């Protein structure tokens, strides 16, 4: 019966389902429509859509995925570019039924345009503010990302910048994300800045175990007691040395941000059915479905919910619970969580009645 329900629901159900998005990289979330606007403004770069989007059924290695961001960064080299893409990304998430969004991005400086890391973040925040003034039905917050490929010194600067905005933005900037190419650097390099972030009151979400054989680094970073884990793709490997990592994550009830299409297209999981969502979900562990990079991977959060429903044969109630329980994992405070849960309660009867 669950299987029939999963395969019989129209995409409209998943679009209308209220959703929480907790793992969305700003530049990777730029849609094809927004990319065309950027290309029109910068034809001299000669960047084609195929260089920044992985179409349906296509796959790229993780290295090739990171190379795509090089082209995207060339397209977003000015504060006005960052402002435009932020507004477009927020509007698109809102149109897909996302009611709460935590965007994340690494502050960048571009000497050619005079953009500094501070004006980069200010452009993102201005985009969020303008969307709020438009009355969009979405609550948007921002996480500052540390790019591990840039090293510890830059990480410390980024933590300082994030701490400044934490104090000055009335709850819009909430936390810090450790991300970037998982093959670059080592977690040991970032322990000090990440500890500084925690002391400053920033919430922590860490990309962990994105690639195999990183047990030592993962164990080290889990010692920081992060508030959430990004991907955790290889946490549950069957090797004896890794089993204690699963137990540590379970003991701390650390929520995982899971991105199926991203992992499939970047070839870090072999198939939908073998995605680690099934492992953690069947343990009853906290998980949140996310998009990662909806532009690069040509997906939406509603698509991720539909993919999970069909692959793991989840019922309407199970899908609803997956969506509503994600509220518990947002970095915003108790008042925001209460408001979101009330909103979900209000929307539930009409949506489920429509299915019947």
UniProtKB/TrEMBL annotation:
Pfam families: A_deaminase (PF00962). The keyword NADP does not apply. PANTHER family: ADENOSINE DEAMINASE (PTHR11409), ADENOSINE DEAMINASE-LIKE PROTEIN (PTHR11409:SF42). Belongs to the metallo-dependent hydrolases superfamily. Adenosine and AMP deaminases family. Keywords: Hydrolase, Metal-binding, Nucleotide metabolism, Zinc. InterPro entries: A_deaminase_dom, Ado/ade_deaminase, Metal_Hydrolase. It catalyses: N(6)-methyl-AMP + H2O + H(+) = IMP + methylamine. Its cofactor is Zn(2+). Residues 18-343 form the Adenosine deaminase domain. The lineage of its organism: Eukaryota, Metazoa, Chordata, Craniata, Vertebrata. This is N6-Methyl-AMP deaminase. Monomer. The gene is MAPDA. One of its GO terms (biological process) is inosine biosynthetic process. Signal peptide: none annotated. GO terms for molecular function: adenosine deaminase activity; metal ion binding.
């Amino acid at each position: 019966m669950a299987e029939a329900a999963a395969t019989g629901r129209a995409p409209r159900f998943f679009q209308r389902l209220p959703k929480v998005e907790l793992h969305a990289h700003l530049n990777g979330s730029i849609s094809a429509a927004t990319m065309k606007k950027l290309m029109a403004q910068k034809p001299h770069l000669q960047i084609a859509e195929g260089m920044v989007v992985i179409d349906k059924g296509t796959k790229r290695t993780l290295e090739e995925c990171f190379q795509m961001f090089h082209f995207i960064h060339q397209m977003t080299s000015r504060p006005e570019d960052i402002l435009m893409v932020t507004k477009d990304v927020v509007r698109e998430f809102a149109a897909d039924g996302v009611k709460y969004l935590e965007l994340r991005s690494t502050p960048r400086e571009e000497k050619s345009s005079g953009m500094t890391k501070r004006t980069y973040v200010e452009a993102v925040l201005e985009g969020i503010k303008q969307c709020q003034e438009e009355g969009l039905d979405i609550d948007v917050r921002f996480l500052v990302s540390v790019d591990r490929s840039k090293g510890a010194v830059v990480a410390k600067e980024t933590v300082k910048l994030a701490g400044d905005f934490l104090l000055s933005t009335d709850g819009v900037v909430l936390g810090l994300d450790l991300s970037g190419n998982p093959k670059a650097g080592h977690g040991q390099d970032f322990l000090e800045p990440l500890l500084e972030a925690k002391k400053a009151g920033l919430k922590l979400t860490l990309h962990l175990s994105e690639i195999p054989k990183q047990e030592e680094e993962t164990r080290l970073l889990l010692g920081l007691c992060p508030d959430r884990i990004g991907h955790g793709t290889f946490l549950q490997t069957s090797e004896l040395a890794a089993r204690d990592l699963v137990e540590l994550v379970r003991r701390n009830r650390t929520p995982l941000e899971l991105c199926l299409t991203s992992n499939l297209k970047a070839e870090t999981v072999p198939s939908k059915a073998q995605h680690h969502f099934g492992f953690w979900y069947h343990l009853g562990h906290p998980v949140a479905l996310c998009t990662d990079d909806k532009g690069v991977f040509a997906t939406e959060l509603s698509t991720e919910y539909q993919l999970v429903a069909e692959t793991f044969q989840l019922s309407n109630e199970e899908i609803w619970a997956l969506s509503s329980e994600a509220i518990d994992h947002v970095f915003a405070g108790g008042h925001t969580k209460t408001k979101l849960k009330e909103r979900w309660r209000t929307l539930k009867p009409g949506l489920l009645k429509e299915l019947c």
